[in-house]
Each structure stands twice: as structure tokens, then as C-alpha cells.
Amino acid sequence: MRLRVLVLALPLAVGVLLAGCGSGSDTTSSPSASASTTAATLGPTVPAATAVAAAVPADQLPTASGAFGEKPTITFPSSYPPPSLQRVILSEGTGPVTQSGDWLITNYLGQVWGGSVFDNSYDRGATSAFQIGVGKVVPGWDVGLVGVPVGSRVMLSLPPADGYGSKGNSSAGITGTDTLVFVVDIVDAVGAAASGQADAEVQPAPANAPQVSGDLGGPATVSVPAGTPEPTTPTVTVLAKGTGAPIQLGQVLVQYSAVTWTGEDAGSTWTTGAAAGGGPQELPVATGGPFEGLTGVPLGSRVLVQIPGQTDASTGQAQPAIAAVVDVLVQTTVTPATATSGSAAPSSAASGSVAPTS
């Protein structure tokens, strides 16, 4: 059994936006009634873009109000939308340049060209995390958000093929001919090879417990010596204390390596690699959940997580106890204090809410 199977089995709130990468569309959506130009034809089966297109004249693209971190208002021209993937850097940051496979911590607003806003993170008061460049978000994000400095505000115009394709996304009110416009603030980026702090303060090792190997700031492994007692409740033990903010209920981005109590591999985000869907993973820190003990642990820390064996409710199959070494990297979302037990933050690629797999 792999740790991520356990994680994905936990109850999470599931949203609908940015879901399902698609390709193929017939035409762009229509502009306002005052438009006099003819709609550009995208063809019956247009593949998604592999690069941002040459820029069209500025007066053929929307404008967006507000500074980085502020909820934007998008104003559309009277012309039809361009039939190509367009990117405008509204304000350029000074951080590292994003790469394929990175997890981006973002604020964003998405709106149908000339139509309604279908989602935004600003009103939720919480950032959202997405892994880009590996097919986990709509194609226009995979292409348009790579190669941009952290701290930038970016506007993307996505023809249907670079958004949801000819099927659209009915749950978000998006049709198969809609062009979508996003304003995205790139708050942070976490690379596929990220680990916890190399200078985290080492804590006394727990006695008669799973053993962890690997230098701080790099990949780690865990093993369970013969005779180690199995956990009866989920436990979290800090092995090296970081200096980041204390973890709150919500979602955190982590790297981990795990084994079962019988010595079987239970997965490692360090070794799978971004191209195979590996790299950092989001975990839910929820009241009553197996990772509740991460609450209060400083970001940047390395911890040992022990999860008791359990019986799969759907199959009745016994699942062994798990030991995992976990580096906690970034808090991606915080659960509001008014949320009920078991609810999750509104956006998570790992949980399939805002940016699920294609």
C-alpha cells in the first residue's frame, strides 16, 4: 500500500474548477454585441498549444486592474478573442523563474471572455497550489505559467483547446467554445526536488521507533527494525525543527518516503520525479485525520509519521501500519476556523479540487 492511496482515501471537499484538460474545439466564444469582426475559426480538432503564441496587439486583449495580491477586475475589448494562447506579464517579480514540474502557490481569478467570473481565490482569502507542466492543470496553465519569475502577476487568454476543449466544463458554466482569461499572482514556487531546511535543529531521536536516514536538506528514507512496536494511534515526532511558521489545519506541501511495518515500499515523492507525477504532494492536516499531529510543527521541519494499520472500509482488506519520514515545505491553504471537522481547503491539486488530473 502506498501512502498517497491512504491520503486520497481521506474525505476531502471536492471542487470543479480548472478540472479536466481538453483539446479540440470549433470556434472561439463570441464577444460583446457591439463587435463587428468575424469570429476566428479554430478548426474541428485543434491541439493544445505547446508554446505561448506571438503577442497580438494590446487592444485585442483584456486589461486587468489592481496590483499583485489584489483582486483584479478584467475589462474586455469589443473584438473577438484571439484564437491562440496569449500571455501578458502585468507586473514582473524578482523571484526564481518557474519550471515545469514546480508547484506554484498562487492567487488567481478566472473569467469567461466577455462573460462571468467562474472562480477566484481572492474572495476565499487563501492561496491555491498547483503543479504545472505535467498535465495536472489545463494546458494553457501548463504552458503559460512556465518560465515566469515568482512574484509576477500574469494574464493568460486561453482558447478552448488550451482550456477545457470542446466539452467545456458545465459545472463551472464553461462551454466548449468559450475563451477563458485568467489573472494569476505567482506567490511562490516549490521545485520537484525540494526538501526541508538543511539547517533545521536536530531533535533527540525517539527510542524503539522507525529509523530515518538521509541528510537534512535532501532525500530521506525510513526503515522499521524488527521488533519495533506498531503504533495504535497516528503519531508525529519532530526529528529536526525548522524555523518556518507553525502549521495550521488545512493543506501542506511535503516530500515523503514511507514503508509498511512489514518492510514493503509505500512510496516516495523524492524518487518518483515530477515527470511521473512525483515531487512534492499536498497532505490534509485535519482534525481527527492521520496528520493532525503536524499542527504547530514549524515549516521546514523533518518529522516521523507513524500510522496504525487499518481495514479498508470498501474491500475489508487489512492494511499494514506505515512509517513515513516527511519534510514539510509550504502551507498551501488554511482551513477557516468556522469549517466543520473533516472539511478541506477549497483548492488542491492532490485532492482533485481546483486542479485535478487531466
TrEMBL record:
Span list, region Disordered: 198-220, 337-358
InterPro entries per UniProt: FKBP2/11, PPIase_dom_sf, PPIase_FKBP_dom
Catalytic activity: [protein]-peptidylproline (omega=180) = [protein]-peptidylproline (omega=0)
Keyword Ubl conjugation: no
Record's signal peptide: 1-19
EC number: 5.2.1.8
Domain PPIase FKBP-type span(s) in chain numbering: 101-190
GO MF annotations in UniProt: peptidyl-prolyl cis-trans isomerase activity
Keyword terms of this UniProt record: Isomerase, Rotamase, Signal
Protein's UniProt name: peptidylprolyl isomerase
